[in-house]
Write a structure and sequence with these properties.
Layout lengths: L6 E7 L7 H11 L4 E8 L4 E7 L5 H14 L6 E4 L4 E3 H8 L3
Antiparallel strand pairs: 1-3, 1-4, 2-3, 4-5
C-alpha cells in the first residue's frame, strides 16, 4: 500500500532484543498495515531503528499507540526513543503519556 508520507514516527534503540528487530518491525507493520507503513529498518552493532510513515496527524496517535504496544510486548526498555516530529521521548515516557504503563 502506498501511503502519502507527510507524517513520520521514528523509533531508535540501543536495546539488544532477544529477537531480530526486523521481526519487531514486521509486527508493527502488521499492527498498522491499513494506515501506515514501515519505510526503514536499520540494524547496526550498536542498536536499531524503525521508521514509519502515515498520512495526517489525526492517525498519528493510533500509530504511536500500536507501535508502543508492540515495543512493550517485545521487551523494549528506556533505551528506546520515539520521535513523532513534535516530541522525542523515551519509551516509558510515551507509555505513561498514553496510559499504557
Amino acid at each position: 500500500m502506498m501511503i502519502a508520507r507527510d507524517e513520520y514516527l521514528y523509533i531508535y534503540s540501543t536495546d539488544m532484543l532477544d529477537v531480530d528487530p526486523r521481526s519487531l518491525s514486521a509486527r508493527i507493520a502488521e499492527a498498522v498495515e491499513d494506515v501506515a507503513e514501515v519505510i526503514t529498518v536499520e540494524v547496526t552493532d550498536t542498536g536499531w531503528r524503525i521508521d514509519l510513515a502515515y498520512e495526517g496527524t489525526a492517525i498519528g496517535r493510533y500509530v504511536l499507540i500500536e507501535a508502543l504496544k508492540c515495543l512493550k510486548q517485545y521487551g523494549c526498555t528506556r533505551l528506546t526513543t520515539l520521535d513523532n516530529g513534535r516530541h522525542r521521548r523515551t519509551l516509558p515516557d510515551w507509555l505513561g503519556r498514553v496510559g499504557l504503563t
